[in-house]
Amino acid sequence: MAEVRRKTGKPLQVNPHKLSQPMGATLAFLGVDRCMPLMHGAQGCASFTKVMFTRHFCEPIALQTTAVTDVTAVLDGGDYSITESIKNIGDKVSPALIGVHTTGLTETKGDDIRGVASKIEVPLVYVNTPDYQGGLESGWTLTVQALIEQLTEPRERTDANKIVLVPHVSMQPIEVEKLREFIEAFGFEVVAVPDLSSSLDNHLGEKQASLSGGGVTVAELEGLADAGAVVTVGASVKPVGATLQKKNPAIRHRHFDHVSGLVGTDELVAWLLETSARDTPPAVVERWRKRLQDAMLDSHFSIGQTRFLLVAEPDHLAAMAASLREVGGKVALAIATVDSPVLGAIEADRVIVGDLEDAEHLRDDYDIIIGNFHTEALAHRVGKRAVMRGFPNYEEIGSALKNDVLYEGGAYFLFDIANAAERMRESEVHHARERIKQQGAAA
Asked: Looking at residue 401, what DSSP letter applies?
């Protein structure tokens, strides 16, 4: 394990790849059916978030703002902006839920959104998400906790066949769907919270809706506390397990830092076999495990000779690093957006909480970059090949259907990385031959 370097000596981030807490909150609310996220802050904050998710998912994004300015932030306590925005939303689209989340401007002013929410007679969940703290992961987790704390009704009994699944923010919609179906194959009823698998999965709906379509319903959120177990995937969402247990202490909590690669998925399968009292996993699960094993054999020659730079949210870093290390890949450098306990468990030469400038200074340490769209410009500058993963990805279409988790996704991930490594080596050979030809012509 590498020592985590949490301070780079810089007073600011020069080339950040970090996304804010309000963005994480917006994404979590989009996983609730017929929900309207309402960002309490400046219009530009909501516009940036809306554009980013629209470009990433290639889908219309439901998002409204209270459009606070620096003047109204001082003169108005925030009550009027919120109540008028909620009134306008209700008159136009009649959402099943409104998700009010704050930004740095309104948090600095100190607006009491809890007090405002108590005076409003519409289905509403509020959460404090200042963008000068945390990041995408914490915004997502705080919102999930708020949904449970404010909507879920306490219970005393549990249903052993019901499982609440809490994925981390970096899991794409198809990955949430695959994980839910994987657990259901063992005989369980699964409710994902939030559930992007049916709201932002690039399917054609009846029309372009002004509200989120698909996802966990408000009724399902209200009835979560009768689940027999809650499964959290990702260190950032681990606290959600305790939040749900406050509604019913009889709920069992099982946590996984990730469910990527062979070992991570094996741990999930072992727990599901024990919980379901099955002797063997479903045939399709065994089949995909064998396919992943074959993929590991086929790809380890290419991946094992390659040094990687990983740039992502901490939970996503841990998952990708584990998959690469299983086939001998060398994670030379891992750069996280924010600090997290999971960083200390990543097998890498260096783990840094920093920005892309740090990666540029260490350009000689790695061969291939795996990260979000912002790493593409870095790849051009340092002359490296990049593989797109994480938020946001403007370079490729179909990010919502890119699956890297479980046995099936693990095989796809290894093939993508191995093919990128082979193309890199072919390019190096081509350039070497061209240099030889030029030297011969000059002689």
From this structure: G
Closest CA to 371 of 170, 140, 135: 170
For residue 388, which of 401, 369, 404 has the smallest C-alpha distance?
A: 369
If we measure between CA atoms, which residue out of 137, 185, 195 comes closest to residue 353? 137
Confidence of residue 201 (pLDDT cuts 50, 70, 90): confident
Handedness of CA 320, 325, 329, 334 (dihedral sign): positive
The C-alpha atoms of residue 370 and residue 324 are separated, in whole angstroms, by: 11
At 277-307, the pLDDT tens digits run 999 999 999 999 999 999 999 999 999 989 9
**Cα separations (Å) of 389 from 91, 265, 396, 404?**
39, 20, 10, 10
* Residues 333, 232: Cα–Cα separation, whole Å: 27
What SS3 state is found at 264?
helix
C-alpha 419: how far from chain center: 24
pTM strictly above 0.90: yes
For the stretch 413-435, pLDDT in tens is 999 999 999 998 887 776 677 77
Closest CA to 15 of 382, 378, 387, 381: 378
